Recover the amino acids of this structure.
């Protein structure tokens, strides 16, 4: 992914002809190819990385937006309960989300799915802060939620915290159809990336591919498969 303005993590980039938007469109196409030949369909995609700040949230949002602009019915879920950010897309009243649904059996999808400014893309915020995010994510209610979401949406993209440090991302990744692994270009910490991939493999997460973020244009040729 090319570099973008550092302040624009949770911003929809309306200029669909920019290299930035094009890079995420290409990522979507690459993911679609990664799914070809698999015996299961890939509808729920977790986005994660080894360490904080590598570009997971940006990637999840722009990937979901690329699917929506391509005509898919998309839900973007904020699965980073400890450090939520996607609620800003849902505007006022959009704070109820994933934790509320998981913690309270009386909550229905309608309460926690919000419109975003982009047609075709809905958002589920992380929800009310809870002391036990991993327990909630490990609960069967997340499995049934994901099944329900697959019936309602073409694609569900889930932003998660970093793999190293807490178990949350591994739980979500293992429950999704596939995982997109984000690696910050330029300062790839190979050991950390390898450890995180090992941990994802241990929980039998299906890794669809990796994407390098924050790549300077002049460095792009160093990465023949960068997107
Ligand atoms: N392709 C990119 N080019 C340049 N900067 C980027 C790119 N993607 C993300 N960033 C910047 O990197 C910073 C971290 O991005 P982001 O919040 O998406 O990472 P994250 O992995 O979700 O972080 P955290 O682990 O804290 O949740 C932000 O300032 C964001 O604007
Ligand atoms: Mg994030």
């Amino acid at each position: 992914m090319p570099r973008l303005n550092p302040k624009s993590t949770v911003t929809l980039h309306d200029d669909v002809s920019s290299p930035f938007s094009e890079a995420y469109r290409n990522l979507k196409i690459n993911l679609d190819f990664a799914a070809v030949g698999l015996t299961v369909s890939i509808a729920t995609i977790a986005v994660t990385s080894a360490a904080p700040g590598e570009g997971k949230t940006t990637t999840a949002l722009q990937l979901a937006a690329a699917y929506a602009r391509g005509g898919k019915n998309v839900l973007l879920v904020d699965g980073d309960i400890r450090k939520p950010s996607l609620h800003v897309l849902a505007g006022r009243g959009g704070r109820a989300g994933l934790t509320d649904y998981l913690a309270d059996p009386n909550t229905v999808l309608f309460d926690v799915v919000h419109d975003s400014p982009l047609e075709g893309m809905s958002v589920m915020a992380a929800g009310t802060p809870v002391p036990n995010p991993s327990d909630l994510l490990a609960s069967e209610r997340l499995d049934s939620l994901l099944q329900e979401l697959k019936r309602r949406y073409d694609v569900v993209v889930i932003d998660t915290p970093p793999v190293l440090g807490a178990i949350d991302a591994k739980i979500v990744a293992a429950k999704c159809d596939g995982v997109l692994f984000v690696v910050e270009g330029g300062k790839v910490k190979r050991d950390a990336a390898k450890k995180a991939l090992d941990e994802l493999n241990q929980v039998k997460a299906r890794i669809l591919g990796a994407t390098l973020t924050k790549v300077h244009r002049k460095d792009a040729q160093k990465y023949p498969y960068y997107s």
In short: The CA atoms of residues 118 and 209 lie 26 Å apart. The chain has a mean pLDDT of 89. The chain has eight helices and seven strands.
